[in-house]
Each structure stands twice: as structure tokens, then as C-alpha cells.
Amino acid sequence: MDHARPPVLYTLAFDSPLLGDPVPQPTSQPTQPRLKIKEMPSTERPRERLRLLGAQALSTTELLATLLGSGHRGGSALQCAQQLFAQSGGSLGRLAAVPFAALTRTRGVGTARAAAVQAALELGRRMAGEAREAGQPLRGPRDVAAVYAPRLQDAPVEEFHVAILDAQHRLERDVMVTRGLLNSSLVHPREVFREAIAERAAAVILVHNHPSGDPTPSAEDRAVTEQLVAAGRLLDIPVHDHVIVGRGRYVSFAEAGLL
User: Fold this and answer.
1) Contact 151/129 with Cβ under 8 angstroms?
2) DSSP single-letter state for residue 134
3) Running DSSP on this structure, what letter comes out for residue 43?
4) Does the structural domain 137-256 have CATH classification 1.10.8.60?
5) Distance (Å, rounded) from C-alpha 70 to C-alpha 62?
6) Lowest CB count within 10 Å: 94, 123, 208, 231, which one?
7) Model pLDDT for residues 196-232, shown as the tens digit of each residue
């Protein structure tokens, strides 16, 4: 373990603002009053544009405005959406990581609207996780990251998952073992391998995230991995890799020679 080469961090482009959708910049300059959405020509209203042109034609702030539905006294839904997006630095990934209570502190965003925003972002994250063709094998850590990074890289707390593989290395099932701080007392071999045994797994891959965004393995990560690899040998269910997901980056224990 002490002689293993330093882990290599691999970069994935998951956290860029949408092309053509400029990052909003807060301004202290006075602005002219803007029209309320109902005062706009019908063809310029976000919902009408979505109906006529499709959701792909709308900017991110227009889509957020559609989710919000209406604004507040003195501001339209579009202005409210622009403020919400600007507070997240123009990143949907960072917006998805904003706690529920923090969303409701934005003027015009109550509990119902905050719930709608979080639900929509979670649906998008889950769809990204399903984007990989069903039955396609996980051939390496990049494939693993492509499946797990969209939903884990912006998660506010650590989540520890086990990818259960069949004999062709296809993902049979994803199991979340724990959510919270990662340590050897929480990630017990019994919990990790229970579902793998029930599914008659040919192998497993361990996956977890670092909310800090830096996927460099910690001493606790290495200790947990060593314990689980040893348990897998005893059960004849090999641990093929442990992939740590950061923001736009990942580290593979297998590629770094840490298994």
C-alpha cells in the first residue's frame, strides 16, 4: 500500500454551463423596470415558447421560470429565475446541491416552488444515470463514472454505492449502502455484500463521492477499501474497483494500483 503510485485524477466534463446560456452576473447598477410575463407578447412568454418551439429552445432561466410558474410582487417569474440561477453561479449542478431551506430564502421561492425545482433537477440527474444503454458492460472506471457522476458529483453528503455486476460485467443492480460520513464502522462488509450474495453477483465495484469535489482518496477510503477487498476474496465475489467521484473528476483505485 505504501509503495503504490499516487492516484491519477481523471477529468469529466459534467459541470459546464449550457452552451449559449451565459452565466448571469449580479449587478449593482440600477435597471429599468421589466415587463411582467403576462405583459409580454404571447410568443415571448416561456410557456408559450415551450409549447410552440419545444423545451430545447428555451434558455435555462426560461425553463426555471416555467417551473416557478409566477413571480412575486415587483418581479416576474423570469426575474425570480434569473436571480436563482445567478446565486448558483450559472451552474445547474451547483443549483442542485443547494439545500431546500436555502432555496426558499430567494424572494418569490416558497416551499412549493423549491420542491418543484429540486424535483425537476433530480429527474434530470436520474435520466442522465439511465442514459447508458441497458445491458452494456462497465469496461472500466470511465464507464463507471459516466453512470454515477451525474448523480453523485454534486451530492451534498457522501454516498457509498455498490455496483453489482453479472458475468459479462453488466450492471445488474445499484445498491446505496450508506449516506453520510464514510468510515469503516458504517460501511460493513455484511451490508456491502448482502445484496451481492442475493443477486449471485460475479463481481462488484465500489463507488462513492467526495462532496468537497476533490476525489483524492483519504486514509479512511483506503482502509475501507482494503477491508472490503479482503471480504470479497473470502466470499469469492471480487471487488474490481473502487471509484471516487469528485466534481468533474474521478479516481480509480484499480488504475492507481491501490487495490
Assistant:
1) yes
2) T
3) G
4) no
5) 12
6) 123
7) 999 999 999 999 999 999 999 999 999 999 999 999 9
